[in-house]
Amino acid sequence: MTDIRTGFGYDIHRLVEGEYLLLCRVRIPSDKMIDAHSDGDIVLHALAQSLFSALGLDDIGTYFPDTVNETAGMASVLLVEKALKEMEKRNYHLTNVALAIQLQSPKLADYKPKIKESLSHILALDEERIAVHANTGEHLGPIGEGKGIACYCVTTIVKD
Ligand code: MG
Description:
The chain is built from five helices and seven strands; from the N terminus they run ββββαααβαβαβ. By secondary structure, it is an alpha+beta fold.
């Protein structure tokens, strides 16, 4: 029987005054930036969390606590690399990534291809296996008021 697993990841961060947003290593011009202990790349946080969950592992905060100096300003791609390593150790491979980013502004339509390309490169996964969706907060709640950004990520992994 094929061993197929689904992972789910979620993250939310505050937005503060800045010059760009970092989404999957893509710099998006903005008058805000993501407030975080690490480099704040929320897409990669949600993605790593999703992979950890597919493997039945604990959340990223367990492996990379945001209360210690070692993770200050850390490149979030390291979280994903750790998750991929754990996946390979268990003989699984990634077949699909579905991402949803929730941000009031700027509109991400023009940047989605770049985000997808970057993800494809990081994960060594065909772009047609990656979906990058974006929604505003419809002016509702903290995200709609431009105070924060959230990201949801579902991954599918299959045993080799
Ligand atoms: Mg985070």
